[in-house]
Structure prediction request, 505 residues.
Amino acid sequence: MRHTEVVGLWRPTDAPPGGKTRVSRATDPGASHTSHAHKFVIKSTAMIRQSSLTRFIVNKKNNTGNGEIQWCFSQVKGTLEDDVTEADLISCVEFNHDGELLATGDKGGRVVIFQRDPMSKTCIPRRGDYTVYSTFQSHEPEFDYLKSLEIEEKINKIRWLRRKNQAHFLLSTNDKTIKLWKVSEKDKKIEGYNTKEDSGIMRDPMNITSLRVPVLKSMELMVEASPRRVFANAHTYHINSISVNSDQETYLSADDLRINLWNLEITDQSFNIVDIKPTNMEELTEVITAAEFHPLECNLFVYSSSKGTIRLCDMRSSALCDKHAKLFEEQDDPTTRSFFSEIISSISDVKISNSGRYMMSRDYMTIKVWDLHMETKPIETYPVHEYLRPKLCSLYENDCIFDKFECCWSGTDQYIMTGAYNNFFRMFDRAAKRDVTLEASKEIAKPKTVLKPRKVCVGNKRKKDEISVDCLDFNKKILHTAWHPNENIVAVAATNNLYLFQDKL
Prediction:
């Protein structure tokens, strides 16, 4: 196993991948060379996901006459004004393991945690309201004085650890630094110190004539967020993924060309388990786009690439996982290849199902579901926005073709969800082979408003309630999604608002 010793003061860089050492250090001599074929990949990896949080709630499956779920508005948080600062745009969203907490990160480096309202679970009809639990500044902007580059404070990923005591723990990362946060409640304070006043001012030892026993007194509930570990200096390129292992002792972090394995208790060293950087950077043909541990098997993890392939690695077979155990790849149809084929085949997200049997990948145009026992082709393929295929040229010109859409599983693995443009998000029922397109917008921000399925018209003849493909707003995009692990509650990032939806009761 490659041992990566973290050394020196971290000087992050936005430079493209390069160099040839496998030890993660502050500098990389060859970091100025990138193959022309994959400049778009590096660009897309570094692009900022401009989105915020929309939240949707579905309680138990509610069937209409045709078996589809009806969704209605429940709650909205955040300003509905059009004037939104860039720092408020949500960049990630993640439920904890029991769904009681929902964490969101934004481009300003802040983490906001929402807590399930206990009353909403017991009232009739049952609701899924969330209230603000804690807000803290996770990352600050930095500057690399050696390379004259700014390091953004934007939160790229948040991952929860399983709860072991009264406190909650989560990992958050920006482009270079990963932090472990402890979130705990405090409702009592100590009074009656001998060496200091209750105000905190130290007492003169010469004036202490008697000893007193400190006592605990009740106080207003306060939620504290404190950094317990800082994992830095191990990535030359931008971190795109973090994933906590099922053993809850280790986690992985991935950037464009390397994947490192960390122990949650050790901050000054990590192990490089995957390195796809070629000796000659002119030979670079792909980059890592996402990585995730298996939810049940602590020795397995997968990572996807810009070539549209997914590799499954087994750490039992080798400490260095440059050679994969399985390769999941669907062969392209030569008759349909175009200038954009390589770009739109790049996988932006990969998620293993809760059962551990299946795997889902999202590329620009589709979602694919794979059986981990079959590598040759996906068992299911769902088109997300096929109506955009004739517009790939204009999407390339405005850089939208490089957008990184995420995807998520429902708690039962029956539904999958992903985002699209115009604040649309798509849901697919794997069992019933149905899909629906819904929209997150302030127009439906009225109590008990039922969401109507949206349809996009491609031709000249547009039916009522349809929207023309030429009228889609590509600045409004849903990139980040999450699903409650036990209930049908989903969170969707769209602009700067937090919408709550639930099924019609």
